[in-house]
Structure prediction request, 309 residues.
Amino acid sequence: MGAPCVLRAAARSFLPPGRGSSRLRCRALSCCPNTRKMSSKRQMDHLEKTAKDYRQNVVYPAQVCGIIKESETVKRLRVSVHPDFSFKAGQWVDFFIPGVEKVGGFSMCSCPGLLQSEGVIELAVKNAKHPPANWIHTACTVGSHVAMRVGGNFFFDPQPSDPPVNLLLVAGGVGINPLYSILLHTAHLMRLHHASGGRDYHIGSTHICYSAKNVQELLFKDTITEVCREFPRTFSCDLRVTEQSDGDDRDTPLITRRGRITKADLRAHVDPQKTLCYLCGPPPFIEAISEALTDLGLPKDRILFEKWW
Prediction:
């Protein structure tokens, strides 16, 4: 695995503000949920929102090596990274852009297995006025140099000796990114488990509930359904749209339903002793789903979420 030598020079253009914690203090099955409140008076930027979160100490140079139009509003970047770059499924990066003062914060939508095999990561970014997102949609090209630093307490990184858990992944909109990374990672672990004859980590079950405005904004839906078909006894999905127009019915896959995710949709997938739930989406979505899960008896320490974007 490697990246072009020219990437090493890119990091010299950046002076990242602040320093992160020097070591990881929590593991996937015991990390604490993020409970910061969001201000309605002034929108905090990424560095402010995540100031207390874990961060690696190193900012790594990187280079954009692919750009894919994921939907009308989302671009997926494929980024070649430094050989020492590493992350856990579910984490994000501080995204430094030459000439752009604001620092972006984007969750990886790829899994660590892709990094190990190809030396790249992927980021899916929705178009917005925020300078880093706007740059990705208006100025970023294949070959653009950037720099990244990994951070975040929201991840799934089980060890072979850990007991199996039943994962419940609940996403709203672009909140799918870290959960898609976790989904891909669990599928990778499942393949390793089969290949090793059961010596690697054993996944319990994995169910993903994912809602978006319309079918076009259901990112990664094809791969999600492919994983569920590959492991039908272990993986399942509930994909739904909230504002689909009648004219788009012909494009709606059979697995997609209409309406928001409800307590009734979650009930069959909650076992207070075995379920570990990861949530990501807008704050009102997180609050509603967290309340529903608590009502269903899932302990709060088994409900993990991102609530900073």
DSSP finds eight helices and twelve strands in the chain. The mean pLDDT is 85. Helices lie at 7-10, 46-49, 112-118, 131-138, 176-195, 221-230, 263-267, 283-295.
